[in-house]
Write a structure and sequence with these properties.
about 300 residues; mainly beta; Immunoglobulin-like; 2 domains; 8-stranded mixed beta sheet; 3 helices
Amino acid sequence: MGARGRDGRRTGTALVVGLLLVPTACSDGVPGPSSGPGTAVPDPGADLVVEVLQPRSAVAAGGMVLRVVPTGTTPLVVRGAALTGGPLVDGARWEADDGPRRVRPGRALQLDLGSPATGCPAASAGPVVAHLEVGGEGSDDAVTVDLVPGDPHDLLARTAATACRAEEVAAVAAVRLDAVEPPAAAEDPAVVVVRVDPEPDGRGTLDVRAVGSTPLVSPVGPDGRPATTAPVGARVAAGDEPLLLRVPVVPTRCDAHALAEDKVGTLVPLEVAVDDGPAGRLLLPVTPDVAADLVGWVARRCGLAG
């Protein structure tokens, strides 16, 4: 690690520390200095932990961040960052629009890479490579470091597989969370309505096998309590009439903090299969209005509405 490659670049594999939690803050770093006495460019290839992560707030859009942690003894200034290769169609890049970012040893800097497009099939022959343009504090000197980033949550493969599954489903039908119907009696389950619109000129079949839970709502199990999954057992083919699936749900838990901080509770997952192929998860698209209806009902049911 840290050996000099072609064109004066540093190449190697990132030191990786597996994380169980994905931080949601954008950065622990601060803007890099624009002037002052410079320090030597450190040997960044040997003193970096670099990982690809996804904050919970970025799940719906498929966003990613690059987490950079210097493990040496001197601060690091990051002037640019990019990901290329693997399933990424056009790569992903962080631009230093607000100036370079300075990060102290042992602190984390998170660089927003947006929502990069991934290609299908999801499999790729080559690894994803992180390219970092880094330098020392107060210096204009910089080197480009090429590293294979850590991916402790298998984010890149999961993102590509999710995109491919959505593409396969879209060839058969458009599927979305269409409405939330509150119950007549406050203690009864609400109903989430899943709308399936088969494509008139599409192809193939779509099996909706089950609906899953979220941090906010869960399908009702046989005992009337929240269930992790509940069977659906519906099949449509391209060209069929629209189908409405009505799923009774109850709050997964009543927690004011969880409700206030939730980022993914309105993304209801379905277990689906296309053309009798392997089953996979599809997160239902939802409009802001329907999402607000779902959150509002949970708040009222739990006695948390203001």
